[in-house]
């Protein structure tokens, strides 16, 4: 059975992104989905992993039992082993679910720098949140936060549709662990 509706995937080692997800993106998405759905939404966010739990096992279990992946991507996202595994696992599941029109199980969000994404990532439609990628808590009291909240309302409505269209859970959903490519070399010379 599914245990989570949404798995938020992001580069946990990038402090600004981690703070933005923790302070703004995850709480708004959860709050808005809770308001839209007729039940309590379950969002996997790494902050839910308890101290002492085995990190890789928790991630694999959560990913296998989640309906929709919401990757929050930046230039380094696809060169991180865990981020790539989360994306590849859901992309493979889309193929396995099959049907006339395969299910969309990845709802990608741009935090920053989409020009360095690999070609397979550019084949998707993305939600661009670069106008609101302020990681600091005081962003919530800025005038720009209203626009962020409106955009999050739009995202929550679209994610809600994907949650309800997710294929039935299968115990054989794989969790893939492909090796990431090396990041591209900079096109700007360093002095």
TrEMBL record:
<dbReference type="Pfam" id="PF13676">
    <property type="entry name" value="TIR_2"/>
</dbReference>
<dbReference type="InterPro" id="IPR000157">
    <property type="entry name" value="TIR_dom"/>
</dbReference>
<protein>
    <submittedName>
        <fullName>TIR domain-containing protein</fullName>
    </submittedName>
</protein>
<feature type="domain" description="TIR">
    <location>
        <begin position="2"/>
        <end position="139"/>
    </location>
</feature>
<dbReference type="InterPro" id="IPR035897">
    <property type="entry name" value="Toll_tir_struct_dom_sf"/>
</dbReference>
């Amino acid at each position: 059975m599914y245990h989570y509706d949404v798995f938020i995937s992001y580069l946990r080692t990038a402090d600004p992104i981690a703070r933005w997800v923790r302070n703004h993106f995850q709480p708004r998405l959860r709050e808005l989905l809770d308001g839209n759905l007729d039940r309590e939404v379950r969002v996997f966010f790494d902050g839910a992993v308890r101290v002492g739990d085995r990190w890789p096992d928790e991630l694999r279990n959560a990913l296998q039992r989640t309906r929709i992946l919401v990757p929050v991507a930046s230039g380094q996202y696809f060169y991180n082993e865990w981020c790539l595994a989360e994306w590849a696992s859901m992309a493979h599941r889309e193929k396995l679910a099959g049907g006339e029109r395969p299910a969309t199980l990845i709802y990608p969000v741009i935090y920053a720098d989409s020009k360095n994404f690999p070609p397979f990532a550019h084949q998707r439609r993305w939600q661009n949140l670069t106008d609101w990628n302020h990681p600091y808590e005081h962003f919530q009291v800025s005038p720009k936060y209203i626009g962020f909240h409106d955009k999050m309302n739009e995202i929550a409505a679209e994610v809600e549709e994907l949650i309800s269209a997710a294929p039935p859970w299968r115990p054989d959903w794989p969790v893939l662990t492909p090796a990431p490519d090396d990041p591209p070399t900079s096109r700007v010379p360093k002095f």
